[in-house]
Design brief:
Structural class: alpha+beta
Shape: elongated
Radius of gyration: 33 Å
Number of domains: 2
Largest sheet: 8 strands, antiparallel, barrel
Helix content: 25-40%
Number of helices: 11
Strand order of the largest sheet: 10-13-14-15-16-17-18-20
Number of strands: 20
Strand content: 35-45%
Length: about 475
């Protein structure tokens, strides 16, 4: 009889646990408005009546219902196949538009898995939180996050315990005990977990749970539009401040007849190097050229592709001076700051090819071809509010190899100035071959003060990061 009673208790507890997981959990704001979990989307809470005050949301509830973006180890850019992106675009946004809800708040937490250096995890948690906020802003036409609660959880041991308990992990309570003993000290918790059970538990957690901890999670808060009826609940527009309501951001367009607008994202920019445009060549003088570069920006990540061409064509016949240069360059850049912004510091790798003819006087002139490759560093920053006009500083260094021939004015064999230019060669004419000379340069190869302007944009209908 006692065994039968114990089994009955276990069945009742299991049933209660199952029911508790299926009943939407509620939260309440300081103005006593209750928010109910949206059954179709567990990380969305909708207020019973219109309010702009977000509810109190404990960490335990957040860990149970929040959803978000996952990241690769030690990375902060969004993955193109992230399931949250498709779920948000294909399921949540159409549902919220259909329900005619008003956005009223967001709770975001970004975290890193504990295996890396703590200082690096601080950076990862912050940048991953920013990535999720950027995604939400980009996907909502006019969403403003006035009621924003963001938290950078460096190493989320609380969520680790939640995941282990959901999986009925036999060591869940031991990990919870260690986390409780550390009283929120993440560094101390890492040390104790590494030491526990000879490191075997840590290695298992690393494989089974840590990849899930590399997330930036969110809970979205909405309220009924006071001007309409939703789910059988009719609000009272006369009791609300209509002027402020009209200014509130919403998930759908305010006027259904207006076409939906999207945030523009730069795709191709044109750039010029002011040092080349207004160049002064020693022993020659002012020699401005045309320098044009095109840079392609993907939707996200760190890398861009750059192609440039420089052209100068100065011929001062009276002074026997020439400066004719054709230079093409291909470059790949890696910006330290990801997320599709492509500003700040970057490193680059380049390759170039050059054809030139340069003369300083009757006796000093050269003609040849060259090629080179190297590395560069630069920094770019916006010059206007839109960010489509930018200033950039750069410095490159590497190796440049050229084959060339010197030439002079007048016949070098008989000294007669017949109005022509000749290769400066004094050997047997039948033995002459072009490009008898070779020169190798190792060191600084280019410097730039650039102006960059975006010329081609893409509509940001769907973020694929």
């Amino acid at each position: 009889m006692r065994k039968l009673f114990d089994r009955l208790i276990l069945v009742v507890c299991a049933l209660a646990l199952t029911i508790s997981r299926t009943i939407p959990v509620s939260a309440q704001s300081s103005d006593n408005v209750v928010f109910h979990q949206l059954p179709e989307c567990p990380f969305v809470y909708v207020a019973e009546t219109f309010t702009t005050t977000p509810p109190t949301f404990p960490d335990s509830l957040f860990d149970q219902v929040a959803r978000g973006l996952r990241f690769k180890v030690n990375r902060t850019e969004l993955m193109p196949n992230d399931p949250f992106v498709a779920y948000y675009n294909d399921t949540l946004v159409p549902l919220l538009n259909k329900m005619d809800l008003v956005f009223c708040g967001v709770i975001v937490k970004g975290a890193a898995s504990p295996e890396g250096p703590y200082e690096n995890n601080v950076r990862l948690s912050r940048e991953r939180t920013i990535r999720l906020m950027e995604f939400l802003r980009g996907e909502s036409d006019v969403m403003r996050f006035d009621n924003t609660n963001t938290n950078f959880i460096t190493e989320d041991y609380g969520y680790l315990v939640t995941l282990m308990r959901k999986a009925n992990d036999p060591e869940a309570e031991k990990v919870a005990e260690i986390w409780k003993q550390c009283n929120g000290d993440e560094k101390q918790c890492k040390q104790k977990l590494r030491a526990y059970n000879g490191g075997r538990t840590w290695n298992r957690l690393l494989k089974e749970y840590f990849p899930t901890l590399r997330q930036s999670r969110v809970v979205l808060l909405y309220a009924p539009n006071p001007l309409h009826t939703m789910l059988g609940i009719r609000t009272q527009p006369a009791d609300t401040h209509l002027d402020s309501i009209r200014d509130l951001p919403r998930t759908g367009p305010w006027n259904p007849g207006e076409p939906k607008q999207y945030t523009r994202r730069h795709m191709v920019a044109i750039r010029t190097n002011l040092i080349h445009d207004f160049a002064v060549v020693p022993r020659f003088g002012f020699a401005p050229g045309v320098n044009v570069q095109l840079e392609y920006y993907p939707l996200d990540g760190h890398y861009t592709a750059n192609a440039g061409f420089t052209f100068t064509n100065h011929r001062h016949w009276d002074d026997y001076k020439f400066c004719q240069v054709r230079d093409g360059q291909l470059e790949v850049r890696r910006y330290f700051k990801g997320g599709g912004e492509f500003i700040g510091t970057y490193l680059s790798a380049y390759a170039e090819g050059t054809v030139y003819g340069i003369g300083f006087n009757k006796e000093k002139g050269w003609e040849g071809e060259g090629s080179g490759a190297g590395l560069g560093i630069g920094y770019t920053r916006p010059l206007n509010k839109k960010g489509n006009l930018r200033l950039e500083l750069s410095l490159c260094g590497g190796v440049f190899v050229t084959r060339y021939d010197p030439y002079v004015y007048g016949n070098p064999l008989n000294g007669v100035e017949d109005g022509l230019y000749y290769y400066n060669y004094h050997g047997n004419a039948s033995d002459f071959k072009e490009r008898n000379h070779r020169f190798v340069w190792l060191g600084p190869t280019n410097a730039g003060i650039h102006l960059t302007y975006d010329i081609i944009y893409r509509k940001r209908k769907e973020v694929k990061k």
